[in-house]
Write a structure and sequence with these properties.
339 residues, globular, 3 helices, 4-stranded antiparallel sheet
């Protein structure tokens, strides 16, 4: 059975063929990285850890803009090719349900996911501690903030791109108030994006060195006929600080708390100057993918060294084959995640 993406065709997504030089895994970098450099907009020193989607034949996204005063906020961006980005000079003007201004004190590491006819931006913010913020839009002009789904502390919220068994489904990574030195991925369900329950454990930090400290959700899972393809980040500790890499797993299509395959090898780890050198060195942090069902092409957007946006490519069949070939799952991975 050939592996296929279940979803729309995106024929104009950015793409670059695999180079002839050997690669450590199934992903390869865009040769013109980084696609977003420093000082990308007035008052914004760095953009990284950001998310994009195809919209109306073009591309749009929500971007973590680290302002020159050091406070992160969410900015809007548009692109015709997914590579050259026009970033707004002003942060997104979030409102409450009454249309009144309702800006978070800070906001960072957004994801951007379409479910049915609505687009959801999800990020980390202050809710008397680090927690998950959400907003929705249908016209990209009005972004209405929703209630916080969970109490502190939580980060790395990633919404699945469709309902499962009639419910919205969200990945998250419970944490603490600091630079969390631990973390597992959990999944939760909601009938209405307001009330969340059925919290289940998906998988914990791995035995491999590159994900031995903590893990967290990355891009929105990609639906395939093998299951949900999930790119996530894994963190290792060194004598010089943390190192963030990209990992890959395949979750059960109907019960995503159950892991079918989990790659014991990283898919991409910091090697280039823009990943190893920056505001926070040695970081690759995936937040989004673009993918074309017709060709199986996938473009992965990732934050690099908390300073840049990088782009990497892969093919679905090669990536799934690599994950399965190097898979190592534990009982905690494969169980339904209830205790």
């Amino acid at each position: 059975m050939s592996v296929k993406i279940i979803g729309p065709d995106v024929p104009n997504m950015p793409w670059q063929d695999k180079p002839s030089t050997p690669q450590a895994g199934p992903l390869w970098r865009y040769s013109e990285n980084p696609v977003i450099g420093r000082n990308p907009a007035p008052g914004v020193a760095r953009i990284f850890n950001s998310a994009v989607l195809p919209v109306g034949g073009k591309f749009a996204g929500v971007f973590r803009g680290e302002q020159t005063d050091g406070v992160p906020h969410i900015y809007w961006g548009e692109s015709g090719d997914g590579i050259q980005w026009d970033i707004s000079n002003e942060r997104i003007p979030f409102t409450d349900e009454k249309g009144e201004p309702f800006l978070p004190r800070y906001a960072y590491d957004p994801r951007f996911i379409k479910v049915e006819d609505t687009y959801y931006a999800i990020w980390c913010q202050d809710f008397y501690g680090a927690s998950i913020g959400m907003a929705k839009t249908t016209d990209f002009k009005t972004f209405t903030r929703l209630e916080n789904p969970f109490i502190p502390y939580n980060r790395n919220a990633v919404l699945f791109p469709r309902k499962i068994n009639g419910n919205f489904v969200l990945l998250s990574r419970p944490s603490d108030s600091g630079h969390t030195p631990f973390g597992d991925i959990f999944v939760s369900e909601s009938p209405d994006m307001v009330y969340w329950g059925k919290h289940r454990h998906v998988m914990g930090r791995g035995q491999a060195w590159w994900e031995s400290v903590k893990i967290g959700g990355g891009a929105a899972p990609i639906e395939t006929n093998e299951g949900w393809l999930m790119f996530y980040h894994g963190v290792s500790g060194t004598c010089n600080g943390f190192v963030y890499s990209i990992g890959g797993a395949i979750l059960d299509i109907d019960n995503p708390s159950m892991v079918k395959y989990r790659c014991r090898r990283f898919l991409l780890t910091p090697e280039e100057w823009y990943e190893e050198r920056g505001f926070v060195p040695n970081v690759i942090f995936p937040c989004a993918t673009l993918h074309d069902a017709a060709t199986g092409r996938i473009a992965v957007y990732y934050g690099a060294a908390d300073s840049y946006v990088g782009l990497a490519f892969c093919k679905l069949d090669e990536t799934v084959a690599y994950i399965k070939e190097h898979s190592s799952v534990t009982e905690e991975d494969t169980e339904i995640g209830i205790r």
